[in-house]
Each structure stands twice: as structure tokens, then as C-alpha cells.
Amino acid sequence: RLTALVGVMLFRGRAGVWLSQIRRQQIEAILHTGGGTMDSVRAVVRYMLAAIVLSPVNKLYWRLFRGLRLLWERHLTLHLLKDFLTAQCLNGGQQLDAKEVRHPDQRIAADVGKFCQLVTMLGLDTLQSVVDLFFYSQLLHSISPILAKLVVVMASLGTAISFRLGRQLPKFYSAERFAD
Predict the structure, then answer these.
(1) How far apart are the C-alpha atoms of 124 and 135, rounded to whole Å?
(2) Are 7 and 68 in contact (CB under 8 A)?
């Protein structure tokens, strides 16, 4: 599923560039011809047809994304609960203090769901950003090579700044969890 999802991401990135090129060419054609109403209508209809033809790709992407997340969630939940229950059975069960959380198996399942959702969203959004940066920098390079290089440098700089600022986020997250 991950391979299919990456393939759809690459197709979506290329299709986005293709739609941008169509839109740009149509706007240039309308501007050069004086913007006749028939040309304008033809340009809008052509763009709408392209968008409609590509809309099932987004549906496929979200279906694959949800399926991948559910598979990972099911796998991790079964694996972690198996280890937890094995430890409970081998130790003869542990008595819970009044302060400890009841039903730790439910807590494990809920935490695994949150973890899988966070990891898939962050990981696949990062991958989609790299795909978009690659395809759009190629398009931009065909228009202006200097501007394309500047975009790549600025995107790298923005990523470095985000990593630097994001180092403290786990501390804030754990402080928030203990505050609850």
C-alpha cells in the first residue's frame, strides 16, 4: 500500500504541474487574443474537464492513506497488546494502585491510534512536500532558473529553521500530557 500511495503522490504532483501549465497557457492565449468570450469559455471548460478527470486520483489517495493508517494501527495494536498481555500473564497479573490508570489495554489502543495518525500525516505530508518541491521547481526552472534555485534554497532554509524550532516541541507535549 505504501508503494501505491507514493505512486499516487507522484502522479498527483505531476498532474498539479500539468494543470498549472494548462492554466498558464490558457491565460496567456486569452491575453494575446484580446480575451474574446468564446476563448475564455473554452479555456474554463478545458480546465474544468482536466480537474474533473483528475478528481478520482484524490479520492484514491485518501482511500489508500486511510487504509495504510488502519493497517499500521491494527499491526501495532496487536503487537503491543500481545506483549502487554504476555507480561501480565507471566507476572501473574499486577495489582493496580488507586493512582494507576484502569484498563491499560484500552489506553494502549488509543495511544497507538494517535501515534499512527500523527506519523502517517507528518511522514506523508513531508513526502508530498518533497514531491511538490521537485515538480514545481522543474516548472519554475523552465521559466526562471535563478528563481528556481532561490526557491530550493529558501525551502531548505525554512526546513532547517523548522527543525531548530521544533526540537522543543516534545518537551511542550510531555508537559501538556502531565498537566492533564
Answers:
(1) 16
(2) no
**Cα separation of 21 and 18, whole Å?**
5
* CA nearest to 60, candidates 7, 134, 126: 7
Residue environment code for 130-140, b if the CB has 16+ CB neighbours within 10 A, otherwise e: ebbbebbbeeb
* Torsion, Cα of 124, 128, 133, 135 (10° steps): 140
Torsion of CA 48, 49, 53, 56, to 10 degrees: 30
- 1, 67 Cβ separation under 8 angstroms: yes
Please report, for residues 48, 60, 91, 97, the alpha-carbon distance to residue 101 in angstroms, rounded to integers and kept in the order given: 54, 40, 18, 8
What is the pTM assigned to this prediction?
0.64
Query: What digits encode the pLDDT tens for the residues 13-47?
Result: 888 888 887 777 777 777 776 656 676 677 778 77
By the 8 A CB rule, do 16 and 68 touch? no
